[in-house]
Amino acid sequence: FSLQFFKPKINVHMRIFVSTVLAMNLLVVRGFPLSLRRGLVPSFIASGATTQSSRSTTRLFSVRGGADEPFPTWSFRQPCKTVEISPVPTTSVTVSTSPASSVSSTATSLKIIAAYGNGEDDDADFVLPSQAEPLASTFESFREDFKNGTSAGSALPVVTLPDASRLTLVALGGDKDSKATKAAAKKLASSVAGFAKSHKATSISVSAPSEFLTPEALKAFTVTLYSEMYTDNRYRSGEDVKDPYEKLESVTFYDSDGGLGDVGGIEAAVSQATSLAAGSSLTKDLVNSPPNVLNPLSLASCARQIASESGGCMKAKVMDAKECEAMGMGAYLGVARGSETEPQFIHLTYTPPKGEAAKKLGIVGKGLTFDAGGYNIKTAMMELMKFDMGGSAAVLGAAKAVSLIKPENVEIHFIVASCENMINEKAMRPGDILTASNGKTIEVLNTDAEGRLTMADALVYVDKTVGADKIIELSTLTGACMVALGDGMAGLWATDDDLATGLEGASKESGDKIWRMPLEDSYREQLKSKIADMSNLGGKYGGGITPPLFFT
Predict the structure, then answer these.
(1) Which residues are known to be catalytic?
(2) What does the pLDDT look like over 466-476, one tens digit per residue?
């Protein structure tokens, strides 16, 4: 199996917001990353209108007419066909043009004063802001723990004021450059979420310096806040259903020094952040969903729902086994044979509402909704194998965010070859030879190296049928990546150095770590077969390199 990829003729600027849920790998083919770790939500940041997300629950399942049934997760006669999606927080994040002095008279249940420390010197004298005067005695008692504000996110204990409202001081750190400010914004968001949870706050006001109140910082704050507030109650009942943030209606920022600038830019950034949060929440929901609920049919239903809610900018096409067979997708269908649930080849197409697209992108995600390993059955962690569709969750999360952000000048194709890797009398066996849709034959040496087989036909499709200029593939491709890099970093394989450098820059900006891995050409020898064009398994060593080589 061989794909012919060419260096891209156009540059695509993208940023990735990553929702961390599982270990994945990342590869760039034809200049595009081919797989990311930790449950990603890649989201293209471009100009365009945004739509605020809502907190209302979207119920996408009705397997047994179960409006009155709390757990419609299984039917003896048929697989689940739809999946419920958790509500997204409706907590508003705004910036007030009123002076910070008005915070004292604002009827909010929790008041936070955010302040920079004095450089990097923990022993430097810290001047308590005038608004924090009621905290003076508390500050003296906790001065050492507070570190004079140089440790972003550190906070004083909450004090109850005479009007029954609560007040606290949160540090923004000692550095004020852009990178440090965004990091401080994330820390502040985590603190705000923690206070909202512990004090059951309904509204929170934050007084902060104008140099902190930038579009970039408030965007980082909003994305992090919504991520912290993510709650999944879909499979709980009675007293186990808990949402500690359901009462939080608003977070309002006030300028503490009168230098507030780009309010319009801040509002646009916050609006965009809510779109990213919607994609992130969707990704988490899909990865969290049990495999008796989330299967190829219900995943396809979710894709259709994204298209139906997009306002016409997103179109959904889903091909069944018969259609895929007509296209010669023997590698993908070989994996799907062992499951009672029909495979679903999902293709979402985003078209910009205005103007023509100058470039065409393809984003492909691995969609194994459950991986038992096939006849090479897994001997450990099988209960976690529902997360083998993390790549597809990332792709659909990105599709959701893109449908809300509506970037201009780009056409984006979201592809998922969804199936299960199970065991029955029809399942593929070790030693089988499958034929991919480009005519290449693949000897199956291990049925648990199935992801590369499904992705093979998906990549041929996005390359030959879609004709994408650039391709991203995201997958839980191999545990060997975690052996090499641990569970705190993604592996990146790239055939285009310039784009890889740009992606590494985006990684640093988002705070989600990736590491460039080699595509050592001599390791292709491990993929040779004595009786077919290639095999689906490499040797004992280099297990984090041979799977990406399979694609190039």
Answers:
(1) 378, 452
(2) 999 989 899 99
